[in-house]
Every structure is written in C-alpha cells, then in structure tokens.
Amino acid sequence: MTYTPPLTPAEAFDLLLAGNERFVAGAPQHPSQDAARRAETVSEQRPFAVLFGCSDSRLAAEIIFDRGLGDLFVVRTAGHVAGPEVLGSIEYGVSLLDCPLVVVLGHDSCGAVAAARAALADGVGTTGYVRDVVERVTPSVLAARAAGLTGDDDIIDEHVRHTVDLLMDRSRILADNVAAGKTAVVGLSYQLADGSARMVTTRGLPAEAEAA
C-alpha cells in the first residue's frame, strides 16, 4: 500500500491539504488511480481520512483533494446532516480502519442551508424526507442568527462547527480517540469558485498543523 498507518492526525491533514493545493493550482497528480493501485486495494483498504461531506455534486472528495482509490473513507449526506448511519460509518472508519483524521466538509451556496434559512424566514417548508434534512440544519441557522451572523459564509461555518460538535458529543468512540491523540476532527469549508478548502474548526489537531 502507498500509506502505512498509523499516520499522525497532523500528517494525515497535511496530506489532504497538499492534494487540495494541487487541485486549486490546476496541477493535480491523480495519485492512486491506476491499475496497479486497483490491484493493490483488492484485499484491504487503508484510508488515511474519513471525509464526511455534503452530497452536493460539486464536492467530489477524491477530485478536490487529488486522491485516489483507498485513500479516503467517504460519507456524504445532503447538508452533511448526521444520523445513526452516518455516526456508525464514521466510527467504522476510526475504530476498524484506524483513520487518524475525520473531516467535516461544508461548502458555500449549500442548498440545505438555504432551504433552512428560507423556511425560517417565510415559513415555507419542504415535503417528504427533505423536510428531515432541513430540520436537522435549522439549529445551525438559529445558532448563527442568535450570534448575529447573517452572511452566507458565516452561517455555513456555524453549520460546520455544529456538525463537528454533534459528532464529538454523540460518538464516544470518536471523542475517546481524539482525547487519546489518535484522531483529529477538522471542519472545512469548500469554496466552489476557486476550489479551496478553508479551515473552520478543529478538535485534536496540534496548533502548528492548524496554522499551516
């Protein structure tokens, strides 16, 4: 395999950011995407990060972080809302695959956040199970409003922070791994226009890695 765990959380984060920098610069290397890598990953997977992101079609994780087969354990839902299945999938990546990094990836112009804002503003709700997604995003919008935040980026950041807090509060496995220094949880916001992933919040990442 290309990577031999355990990487430290900081090393995994640096590896992820390096790929995003290549993507932003228009110089992707497309690593781990050939026939040899495909054969190498048949018997096992050793991803270095769990990536929990929004399902938005513009947030293809392996592309925007310039990674390949077996690199990322990806979980995606609309508005990165987290239910039991999501928590179980993230815990699988952390406890069974030994991923040292969990990333929550939000983005600007998020439709789920926009729908929650609209429902609060004019009372027009959604139907079916989309309503459940909107209701799970609404607490983040309310928290941003209570803090006096009105800009799109500020509200998106609040939703990313809320999701990180929720994962830490609800998953004892994740919280224990962070406390032990085995895993870090990082919240990022992706910018659709330039392709960059900006740090929003972190749990368990060394200060020097946060500043990088």
Please tag this protein with its features.
212 residues; alpha/beta; Beta-carbonic Anhydrase, Chain A; five-stranded mixed sheet
Distance between the termini: 27 Å
Q: DSSP helix count? A: 9
Kindly state the number of beta strands. 5
Helix content: 40-55%
As residue ranges, the low-confidence spans are: none
Could you state the CATH homologous superfamily? Carbonic anhydrase
Note the overall shape: globular
Radius of gyration from the alpha-carbon trace, in angstroms: 17 Å
Beta-strand content estimate: 15-25%
CATH 2nd-level architecture: 3-Layer(aba) Sandwich
Task: Name the strands of the widest sheet in spatial order.
Answer: 2-1-3-4-5
CATH topology group = Beta-carbonic Anhydrase, Chain A
Order of helices and strands: HHEHEHEHHHHEEH
Mean pLDDT: 93
Q: Main beta sheet, described?
A: 5 strands, mixed
Task: Specify the structural class.
Answer: alpha/beta
CATH class: Alpha Beta
Describe the structure.
It is a single chain. By secondary structure, the protein is of the alpha/beta class. The protein has one domain: Carbonic anhydrase (Beta-carbonic Anhydrase, Chain A, 3-Layer(aba) Sandwich), CATH 3.40.1050. Helix content is 48%, strand content 16%. It has nine helices and five strands. Strands 2-1-3-4-5 form a five-stranded mixed beta sheet, sandwiched between helices. Helix 5 (111-122) crosses helix 6 (130-146) and helix 6 (130-146) packs across helix 7. The mean pLDDT is 93. One of its GO terms (biological process) is carbon utilization. Its cofactor is Zn(2+). GO terms for molecular function: carbonate dehydratase activity; zinc ion binding. Belongs to the beta-class carbonic anhydrase family. Catalyzes the reversible hydration of carbon dioxide to form bicarbonate.
